[in-house]
Specification:
Strand order of the largest sheet: 10-23-24-25-21-22-11
Helix content: 25-40%
Largest sheet: 7 strands, mixed
CATH architecture of the largest domain: 3-Layer(aba) Sandwich
Number of strands: 25
Radius of gyration: 31 Å
Structural class: alpha/beta
CATH topology of the largest domain: Rossmann fold
Strand content: 15-25%
Number of helices: 13
Distance between the termini: 43 Å
Number of domains: 3
CATH superfamily of the largest domain: HUPs
Length: 560
RNA sequence: UGACCCAUGGUGUAAUUGGCAACACAUCGGUUUUUGGUACCGACAUUCUAGGUUCGAGUCCUAGUGGGUCAACCA
């Protein structure tokens, strides 16, 4: 991109650059990320975060973090903390600009009075049902409320009483006086304030009336002098109201624009549905590695840079979309290939006895940590008469093009010797319990002048110098790419019963005994695995981040 | 029977704003390889349809078609 003469811009960048050119707001760019603290951030929020913070970075502007906390029934301080942690983890910084819509309650209340004074808002005592009835439908106009022409004085009186707690929950609301015949349902005298006796996570019981989204969001943008207020497509209809309120209130003209939400295969991003997964115990929590939450992806070992690269590749448009999961996984592998040290871990150990290797003898072998590093570093492996390989790396009767261990075959042990498979031992069920091999003494890695060929190279761990570890193998939480897009079918019907497989008896090379939680390793020939935060020196636990590409397995799968 | 938004390979985006449809992922095939990983090479499109304007249309105009959104005292 840097080498191009021009740089392709998305539609939001074009809008901003036009504003910059025309000198709007003195060339200032100020965005905001406005989560409601009623749940954890997910991959979809990452798009909004990257957009808002990214734009500010690009155009030398600022980004506010603002909690849209106008519904005390669902919001909690714990969510505030989790959200802040996730944004920081992604690598963004709102500096000292941490705001809350609830901080503006007094100002919003004053705005409401201003609207009443201008004859643009009224107090209504219709029930929710009556109001819905009078609202009409998208194709038929609504009818005016009998209270629509209440006098300004009476409206002020009633609204003040609402605030003072003189009326019951739900008995009165404040509505904007717009147009009951508007083709935009949102303009049919939308509710601005409702009475709700509920303890707010910040303002406690100070208020018993709370502003609705439409009377808080745009006004907060305006108060903070946000220049570009970016939200997802479903808020397009709100834009008319957004503008109407700003004009009526004669406040700072923030501008709202909408982009399409990101949908990723096998993931859902409805907070309600995610919450249900948590409360019904389909997952262990918001941060379960199978969740599309940022905390879940973190626990799964996804590097934040990978997520940012992914968002970057996905782009910014107004189209409906369904992104291949493989693109996300590509970004994760791309990053981890650079970052992760390679280690030997055998998930399903099969004992191999090297018959011509002296009993009781061991030797130390040098292993490269990461072939991608410019400055190579090494660690040591312990090799001996007994080692373990992965069970799937041995077959009694292999198919064509199987390069791994089989009777009478040669196979290379990575960083060690070439082995020749002499025989195997079966138990009473016909299961292979161990394999006997001999090794070619002059085939030691780096010193091999034997000319002996081996088609395959296997990872392994020595019986001596290995530790048992626990490994969580995660797969997609759902069996369907769009679990919540099937009419008449609940998304829970698509829960993958095999989304977690726990392996207790995996064997890892000794260096992993003291692996630090949060570190991601590449298990050679297997995949990327992160050390779980719960790991101790007594028990090391790994979570599978993503498997390595496996063209052999793919070919086999296609055959069957 | 409305209003608004959208339509480019399997997927997601580009196209210097009317001038040779490009990139990434995926898929398939190949080369290299002491990871069946990585890296590298190759293959993969009548730009939703029909008309129109133009020397020239993915881009502009008209009419269709298809998809999405909107009737919470949620955000």
């Amino acid at each position: 991109m840097e080498n191009k003469e021009y740089e392709s811009k998305n539609f939001i960048e074009e809008i901003i650059e036009e504003d910059l050119k025309s000198g709007k707001h003195g060339g200032r760019v100020h965005t905001r990320f406005p989560p409601e603290p009623n749940g954890f951030l997910h991959i979809g929020h990452a798009k909004a975060i990257c957009l808002n913070f990214g734009l500010a970075e690009k155009y030398n502007g600022k980004t506010n973090l603002r909690f849209d906390d106008t519904n005390p029934a669902t919001e909690e301080t714990a969510y505030v903390e989790a959200i802040k942690k996730d944004i920081k983890w992604l690598g963004f910084d709102w500096e000292d600009r941490e705001y809350y819509a609830s901080d503006y309650f007094p100002q919003l209340y004053a705005f409401a009075h201003k609207l009443i004074d201008k004859g643009l808002a009224y107090v209504d005592d219709l029930t929710a049902e009556q109001m819905a009835e009078q609202k009409g439908t998208p194709t038929t106009p609504g009818v005016n409320s009998p209270n629509r022409d209440r006098s300004i004085e009476e409206n002020k009186q009633l609204f003040t009483e609402m605030k003072e707690g003189k009326h019951a929950d739900g008995s009165l609301v404040l509505r904007a006086k717009v147009d009951m015949a508007s083709p935009n349902m949102l303009m049919r005298d939308p509710i601005l304030y409702r009475i709700k006796r509920e303890t707010h996570h910040r303002t406690g019981d100070d208020w018993c009336i709370y502003p609705m989204y439409d009377f808080a969001h745009g006004q907060s943008d305006s108060i903070e002098e946000i220049t570009h207020s970016l939200c997802s497509l479903e808020f397009r209809h709100h834009r008319d109201l957004y503008d109407w309120l700003i004009q009526s209130l004669e406040i700072f003209p923030s501008m709202q624009r909408e982009f399409s939400r990101m949908n990723v295969e096998y993931m859902i991003t409805s907070k309600r549905k995610l919450l249900k997964l948590v409360t019904e115990g389909h997952v262990t929590g918001w941060d379960d590695p199978r969740m599309p939450t940022l905390s879940g992806l973190r626990k799964k070992g996804y590097p934040p840079v990978a997520i940012r690269n992914f968002i970057d590749k996905v782009g910014m448009t107004k189209r409906e979309n369904l992104i291949d999961l493989s693109l996300l996984e590509f970004c994760v592998r791309e990053e981890l290939n650079k970052q992760a040290d390679r280690v030997n871990v055998v998930l399903d150990p099969l004992k191999v006895v090297i018959t011509n290797y002296p009993e009781g003898q061991t030797e130390t072998l040098k292993a490269l940590n990461n072939p991608e590093d410019e400055e190579p570093t090494y660690r040591e492996l312990t090799f001996g008469r007994e080692i373990y390989i992965d069970r799937k790396d041995f077959m009694i009767d292999p198919p064509k093009k199987y390069f791994r261990m089989a009777p009478e075959r040669n196979v290379r042990l990575k960083y060690a010797y070439i082995l020749n498979c002499e025989k195997y031992v079966l138990d009473e069920n016909g299961k292979v319990t161990e394999v006997h091999c001999s090794y070619y003494t002059n085939t030691k890695s780096g010193e091999d002048n034997s000319g002996i060929k081996a088609k395959g190279t296997l990872h392994w761990v020595g019986a001596e110098g290995s530790v048992q570890v626990k490994v969580n193998l995660y797969e997609n939480l759902f069996t369907d790419p769009t679990p919540d897009a099937h009419e008449g079918k609940d998304y829970l019907e698509f829960i993958n019963p095999d989304s977690l497989q726990v392996i207790d008896g995996a064997l890892a090379e000794a260096s992993l005994a003291s692996a630090a939680p949060g570190t991601v390793f590449q298990f050679m020939r297997t995949g990327y695995f992160v050390v779980d935060e719960s790991s101790t020196t007594d028990e090391v636990v790994f979570n599978r981040t993503v498997s390595l590409k496996d063209s052999w397995a793919k070919k086999q799968a296609k055959k069957s």
